UniProtKB/TrEMBL annotation:
Xref: SUPFAM superfamilies: Winged helix' DNA-binding domain (SSF46785)
Source organism superkingdom: Bacteria
Region of interest: Disordered: 1-29, 138-172
InterPro entries for the chain: ArsR-like_HTH, HTH_ArsR_DNA-bd_dom, Metal_resp_trans_reg, WH-like_DNA-bd_sf, WH_DNA-bd_sf
Keyword Transcription attributed: yes
The protein's name: DNA-binding transcriptional regulator, ArsR family
Domain HTH arsR-type: 32-126
GO molecular function, one term: DNA-binding transcription factor activity
Assigned keywords, A-Z: DNA-binding, Transcription, Transcription regulation
Biased composition (Low complexity): 141-163
CDD domains per record: HTH_ARSR
Length: 172
C-alpha cells in the first residue's frame, strides 16, 4: 500500500499562500529588506556625534594630520582618537602614516557631497531660528567655492519670508 506524504504546512507569509488564503494581490505586503535599512540606520548613527561631523567637515578641504584636527576641534586627544577610530572602522575616512604623523582623509567625494547637502538642509530647517542660522553662517565652511550666505539665500521663499519677518520683529 502506498502512503501519500502529507504536505508540509506552507509559510503563510509567502505571497502565494496569501493569495490562496484569499488575500488580494494589491493588499499583499511585500517584506521590507530589514538588513538594508539597518545598515542605513547604522550609517547615520555613525555620523551622530558632533566631533565626527566636525572632522568630516574639516577633511572636505583635503587630508589633515591629527595635530591640525586637534587644533581646529579643541577636544582632548583621547576623545578625538576615539572618534577618528569610529570613522576609520566605518570606512568613511582613511588614515596613512607619514613618519610619526598620522594623516586622515575622506574615503571618497560622496562624503563631502553629503556634508554639503546636510549644510543646505540644516540652513533651510533653521531659517526661522536666527541665532542658530547666524552660527551656521559664521562657521567656516570647508568648501572654499561654497558660500553659506549664498546657501541661505537659496532657502525656499516661505522660509526666507519667515526669516525676514523674524529679523524685523514681525510674526514668527
Amino acid at each position: 500500500m502506498l502512503h501519500s506524504a502529507s504536505p508540509l504546512p506552507e509559510d503563510p507569509r509567502t505571497p502565494a499562500a496569501a493569495h490562496r488564503a484569499g488575500a488580494n494581490d494589491e493588499e499583499t505586503e511585500v517584506p521590507v529588506p530589514v538588513p538594508l535599512y539597518q545598515a542605513k540606520a547604522e550609517f547615520f548613527r555613525m555620523l551622530g556625534h558632533p566631533v565626527r561631523i566636525r572632522v568630516l567637515e574639516l577633511l572636505q578641504d583635503g587630508p589633515k594630520p591629527v595635530r591640525d584636527l586637534l587644533a581646529a576641534i579643541e577636544v582632548e586627544p583621547p576623545n578625538l582618537s576615539q572618534q577618528l577610530a569610529v570613522l576609520r572602522r566605518s570606512g568613511i575616512v582613511t588614515a596613512t602614516r607619514e613618519g610619526s604623523t598620522v594623516v586622515y582623509e575622506l574615503a571618497g567625494g560622496d562624503v563631502a557631497e553629503l556634508m554639503r547637502a546636510a549644510r543646505r538642509i540644516l540652513t533651510e530647517m533653521l531659517a526661522g531660528q536666527n541665532e542658530l542660522l547666524a552660527e551656521l553662517r559664521d562657521t567656516p565652511q570647508a568648501d572654499p567655492q561654497a558660500d553659506p550666505r549664498a546657501a541661505s539665500r537659496a532657502v525656499a521663499p516661505a522660509a526666507s519670508r519667515a526669516t525676514a519677518e523674524a529679523r524685523e520683529g514681525g510674526a514668527e
